[in-house]
């Protein structure tokens, strides 16, 4: 009696044989500083559609089941503006020393809000997406970038309100004033992205980082000229070294760049000399810092799945 020919290979051997026929693809991170950085940037670009979906998810999750939805992104800064205007401007008399105090404060709050939202949300972005990170292979930098994209969207909404406020006040910026806006925005975005990458990675191993960030942002808020003017600072810091220390905070310079753009009533008010040069220097520093933060992120991401 003849029998049908049977395969001499087991199913596991057949599967192994098929895998051996496939071309080799290296899934390990690229080695080398520049090569590794370029590889990660390329990976993020290849997943740009996913990045867009994550940004939309961040925006929808924030106001999920909310009746007002994105209106809340306007109510919070407007409420802060009202509090600072009434308490600091009227009760403590800041409005008498700073012309058009409402525009001045709202310019600073708009710039500061972008930075704080990007950094605080970015710090918890890796931990908050633990499920995806443990199951799906993708560039982990995409999660801090998604929180930054969400913060930029909210910033754009607030920027429209700020421009509308200047129109209502009859003090619309014009001419060379607008040159400060892209420079200041570049400083904020680069600084926020660098800190988001670095802190999101450290937060995986040390969960107290997110709480420290909240305290640090509260301290640095008052170390920036948002509720008070540079004239008041320079009047108290009479030593050049102290002024240089105060201006060593990139957000201080970026906020003053926003004020130079939108605070038309403060045209004759004192500002640090060569503000545009300082902004360009901080753009260079921010670029280098973001590059180094990404390389630190890349070194720490190897054990993300285990730690999460």
UniProtKB/TrEMBL annotation:
* ABC transmembrane type-2 domain segment(s): 68-300
Q: How does it sit in the membrane?
A: Multi-pass membrane protein
Name a GO molecular-function annotation: ABC-type transporter activity
Q: Name one GO cellular component term.
A: plasma membrane
Where does this one sit in the cell?
A: Cell inner membrane; Cell membrane
Residue spans crossing the bilayer: 69-89, 101-122, 142-168, 180-206, 212-233, 245-265, 277-298
Keywords attached to this Swiss-Prot or TrEMBL record, sorted alphabetically, are: Cell inner membrane, Cell membrane, Membrane, Transmembrane, Transmembrane helix, Transport
Primary localisation category: membrane
Q: Which GO terms describe its biological process?
A: lipopolysaccharide transport
Domain of life, per lineage:
Bacteria
Q: Which family does it belong to?
A: Belongs to the ABC-2 integral membrane protein family.
Q: What is this protein called?
A: Transport permease protein
Source organism of the structure: Cellulomonas cellasea
